[in-house]
Specification:
Order of helices and strands of chain A: HEHHEHHEHEHEHEHEHHEHEHEEHHH
Low-confidence stretches of chain B: 95-117
Bound molecules: iron/sulfur cluster
Number of helices of chain B: 4
Mean pLDDT of chain B: 77
Shape of chain B: globular
Strand order of the largest sheet of chain A: 4-3-5-6-11-10
Largest sheet of chain B: 5 strands, antiparallel
Mean pLDDT of chain A: 89
Oligomer: heterodimer
Low-confidence stretches of chain A: 363-380
Order of helices and strands of chain B: EEEEEHHHH
Radius of gyration of chain B: 17 Å
Chain lengths: 380, 117
């Protein structure tokens, strides 16, 4: 457990907490969408510092966690080919596929490289004309402009040995899926700040209106999160449901128009499978027809892969905020960061990893009744 | 990987395509694509994600974030060696640094701690 004096401005944190306590007259459940926020919350013990009535539910905002198993298996198969240099962000190395991970593939002789930016992968393609260079293009709206630029540049340069294994996901359809679940308990959202840095807030008013929930755009530093909670609780107590921007220093209402233009040029909206959750309509991006030549899934013909999820992993429920990681029977026993069963235990932003890391072996149990596992798949 | 790190633009290469700059993240310098903040100037602060500047940020907020990132060891994670981290997590780090079996659980926790952001 962390203490308030570890905040970078403890006095301000205290004031925000006091205000939240004074405002909240009854229980409220808020979902933080971004996995970075989840880690910040657990690391600083924000959930334990809050008044009892305020429950934070962890959302699905970790790109590493929600990348579906079949795409991980596709990545593993492509990365195993002798003619391929497979490039990925470091976070993906230990995400379990059906029977291994990228780290193992490298151990078995695969040429797997960690890159800092998709443009680094593009550079590798230029320098290795006799090899196929494949970049694992995962992520939310924050990462999409970078990956879109890589595809755009590849086409401009006429590179024939570069492709992207795309598994892009979008936040607003995920919020919609969470809210339409019959067992949803979420009453307000802390929307992911950096997603909004790119996309702005235009997609949110309709969601706030339709589901009657406040959506507060929030950063990921401890004080940002407290401020987001303060504003969401204030709205809830007043019976309001608006979009508020509590992260104005990095988020403009219209987002980043140049980045959005590039995304639109390269990607089109598509349905996507989310690991552990299932199919969410219109929840992702894929390369448009004009860029299909840079789609690794087509180039390597890895469409028909069959997958096998470990039966005991309940990460789908964790990602939808239906259970806390500690409620999973495998948590901390058969499933640890060293022997992960699900991506939520591996990813630096996964809720299971956060709980394990900060020794939350018996996290707070929400008062609401638990639904059975079968009832919980709102989008399958 | 959905977080983004604030940094100061220390140089801009106008001839690069796409537009590229050198960004200082509290001492670590990295190149980043500036196409999405095309009118940024040297000395300004930007938020950088996977090698792309996404928005400007005022100096005060940027410095506060950077201080926090540094205190929490996040800069090391962002720019550190991902293979070494993966090795530690997998328990296949060289013997000198590998934890004793009895300490495995505690080691998991401290070691993957450097991975969180
Ligand atoms: S603790 Fe492990 S097995 Fe349980 S939900 Fe999390 S990742 Fe899956």
């Amino acid at each position: 457990m962390k203490y308030i004096d570890e905040f970078n401005d403890p006095a301000l944190a205290r004031r925000l907490l006091d205000e939240i306590s004074a405002t909240a007259t009854r229980p409220w459940a808020l979902m933080e969408v971004c996995g970075g926020q989840t880690h910040s919350i657990i690391r600083h013990g924000i959930d334990q510092l809050l008044p009892e009535q305020i429950e934070l539910i962890h959302g699905p905002g970790c790109p590493v966690c929600v990348t579906p198993l079949d795409v991980i298996d596709q990545a593993l198969e492509i990365a195993s080919r002798p003619d391929v240099i497979f490039c990925s962000f470091g976070d993906m190395l230990r995400v379990p596929g059906s029977d291994r991970d990228l780290f193992r593939v490298k151990g078995e002789g695969g040429d797997v490289r960690v890159v800092y930016s998709p443009l680094d992968a593009l550079e590798l393609a230029r320098k290795n004309p006799d090899r196929q260079v494949v970049f694992f293009a995962i992520g939310f709206e924050t990462t999409a402009p970078a990956n879109a630029m890589a595809a755009h540049q590849a086409r401009r340069l006429g590179l024939t040995n570069f492709s992207l294994l795309v598994s892009h996901v979008r936040v607003p359809p995920a919020i919609e899926a969470i809210m339409t679940s019959p067992v949803c308990r979420v009453q307000g959202f802390l929307a992911a700040g950096h997603v909004c840095s790119v996309m702005g807030t235009a997609e949110y008013p309709a969601l706030a209106e339709r589901f009657g929930v406040p959506l507060v755009v929030t950063g990921f530093e401890p004080l940002d999160i407290l401020e987001g909670i303060r504003r969401a609780v204030r709205q809830l107590e007043r019976g309001e449901h608006r979009v508020e921007n509590a992260y104005a220093r990095a988020v403009r209402e219209d987002g980043n128009p140049a980045a959005m233009r590039m995304i639109e040029e390269v990607f089109e909206v598509t349905d996507r499978n989310w690991r552990g959750i299932g199919r969410i309509p219109s929840s992702g991006w894929r390369l448009t027809e004009a860029f299909r030549a840079y789609d690794a899934e087509h180039r390597f013909d890895v469409g028909g892969i069959r997958t096998e999820e470990p039966a005991e992993c309940r990460s789908g429920e964790v990602l939808q905020g239906l259970i806390k990681p500690t409620e999973c029977g495998a948590f901390g026993t058969t499933c640890t960061p060293r022997t992960p069963l699900g991506a939520t235990m591996v990813s630096s932003e996964g809720a299971c990893a956060a709980y394990y890391l900060y020794r939350r072996m018996n996290g707070p149990t929400p008062q609401a009744a638990r639904a059975t596992r079968e009832e919980m798949n709102p989008v399958a | 990987m959905c977080l983004a790190v604030p940094g100061k633009v220390v140089a801009i290469d106008d001839s690069a395509d796409p537009l590229t700059g050198l960004i200082d993240f509290g001492g670590v310098q990295k190149r980043a694509c500036l196409e999405y903040v095309p009118d940024v100037r040297v000395g300004e602060y930007v938020i950088v994600h996977v090698g792309f500047a996404l928005q400007r940020l005022d100096e005060e907020s940027a410095l506060a974030s950077l201080r926090l990132f540094e205190e929490l060891g996040l800069l090391e994670e962002e720019f550190g060696d991902a293979w070494q981290q993966a090795e530690r997590e997998a328990g296949t780090a060289p013997a000198s640094t590998a934890p004793a079996p009895t300490a495995a659980v505690a080691a998991d926790q401290t070691e993957s701690g450097s991975e969180a952001r």
